[in-house]
């Protein structure tokens, strides 16, 4: 049956649903004609395809050696500067949750090889930034990506305000994207590799903890900076502070880092002293009037003052470097 027979019989010719409406017809049958796209967009698309193909070809020509990669990772974990920031710690539901930090995840990805990762901002609209965290193993062509949204505002005690400075926006997106990026990277790395790296970092910290009286005083000074007293630490470790073990110093360092970064509060880790609890309760209940607070302060003023004790050396800015000094270079 010819096209003329189709037209004469009263049946319409088939229509391609993907064809633009301005294409010509030949002998009663619609013909699809490809339209030329944007030349710049076409060049960018071709460049992106070429980069992906080149990355996969190079990765397969130079496959990773798991033994050598593992040695490189463990060697990096012997550096005290990395080991001191290799893990995070916070409390949820009364349980201590720890794991590898984004810094350790990045080092593992670099030494494992043939992995591309990063954070890409997709759009900004109505005070919300849409971004994408991704990790791609070009050797096995395994990819993990997470899309998320960031409210471009900053919450303070005096209220919230919108972020307009480019640097503030970049830091906000990077901060929210770090956890997603860490999850993407670790999903591509074998679990035993990550566990071995964390264990090596713990061993490095224990080997470099300063257990001298001066070193313990520095740790105590760093804790007091966040309102953690010696009595609170002793109640947590169930022994005198002078008898603390290196592993407990490492754990205390993770806790202080969590408090400093705002991932947890002091009350999540330590039991406050009764006097501090009573004073905090009085402040919370006073609101408009300060009668309860005045009673507490009057009571404290009437109590005999303790004998002066030797003050703790001033706190330095770099807490981790102070708690875990770098080993001497040969």
Q: How much of the residues is beta strand, in percent?
A: 15-25%
**Multimeric state:** single chain
User: Average pLDDT, to the nearest integer?
Assistant: 77
Class by alpha and beta content: alpha+beta
Tally of individual helices: 14
| Beta strands, count | 9
Unreliable residue stretches: 26-34, 309-330
Query: In which order are the strands of the major sheet placed?
Result: 5-6-7
Task: State the shape.
Answer: flat
Biggest beta sheet attributes? 3 strands, antiparallel
Which secondary structure elements does this structure contain, and how are they paired or packed?
Elements (H helix, E strand, L loop, with lengths): L2 H6 L16 E2 L2 E2 L8 H23 L4 H11 L3 H4 L3 E6 L2 E6 L1 H11 L2 E11 L2 E10 L4 E10 L1 E4 L2 E4 L3 H23 L2 H18 L4 H12 L5 H8 L8 H15 L5 H4 L4 H13 L4 H12 L16 H5 L7
Antiparallel strand pairs: 1-2, 3-4, 5-6, 6-7, 8-9
Structural commentary:
The protein is an alpha+beta fold. It contains 14 helices and nine strands. It has a three-stranded antiparallel sheet, with helices on one face. A two-stranded antiparallel ribbon has the order 1-2. The protein has a two-stranded antiparallel sheet with strand order 3-4. A hairpin with a 2-residue loop joins strand 3 (87-92) and strand 4. Helix 3 runs antiparallel to helix 5 (102-112), helix 5 (102-112) packs across helix 6 and helix 12 runs antiparallel to helix 13 (291-302). 20% of the residues are buried.
Task: Give the gist of this structure.
The chain is α+β, with helices and mostly antiparallel strands.
């Amino acid at each position: 049956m010819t096209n003329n027979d189709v037209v004469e019989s009263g049946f319409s010719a088939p229509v391609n649903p993907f064809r633009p409406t301005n294409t010509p017809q030949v002998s009663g049958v619609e013909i699809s004609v490809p339209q030329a796209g944007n030349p710049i967009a076409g060049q960018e698309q071709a460049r992106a395809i070429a980069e992906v193909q080149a990355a996969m070809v190079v990765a397969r020509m130079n496959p990773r050696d798991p033994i050598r990669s593992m040695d490189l990772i463990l060697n990096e974990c012997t550096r005290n500067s990395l080991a001191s920031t290799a893990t995070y710690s916070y409390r949820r539901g009364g349980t201590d949750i720890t794991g590898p930090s984004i810094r350790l995840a990045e080092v593992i990805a670099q030494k494992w090889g043939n992995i591309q990762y990063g954070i890409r901002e997709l759009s900004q609209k109505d005070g919300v930034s849409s971004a994408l965290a991704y990790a791609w193993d070009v050797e096995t062509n395994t990819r993990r990506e997470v899309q998320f949204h960031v409210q471009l505002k900053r919450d303070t005690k005096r209220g919230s305000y919108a972020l307009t400075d480019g640097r503030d926006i970049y830091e906000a997106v990077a901060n929210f994207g770090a956890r997603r990026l860490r999850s993407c990277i670790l999903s591509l790395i074998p679990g035993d590799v990550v566990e071995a790296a964390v264990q090596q970092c713990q061993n490095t910290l224990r080997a470099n903890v300063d257990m001298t009286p001066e070193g313990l005083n520095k740790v105590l000074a760093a804790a007091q900076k966040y309102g953690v007293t010696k009595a609170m630490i002793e109640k947590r470790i169930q022994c005198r502070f002078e008898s603390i073990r290196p592993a407990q110093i490492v754990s205390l360092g993770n806790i202080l880092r969590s408090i400093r970064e705002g991932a947890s509060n002091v009350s999540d880790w330590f039991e406050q002293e009764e006097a501090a609890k009573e004073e905090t309760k009085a402040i919370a209940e006073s609101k408009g009037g300060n009668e309860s607070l005045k009673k507490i302060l009057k009571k404290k003023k009437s109590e005999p003052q303790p004998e002066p004790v030797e003050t703790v050396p001033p706190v330095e800015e770099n807490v981790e470097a102070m708690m875990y000094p770098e080993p001497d270079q040969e």
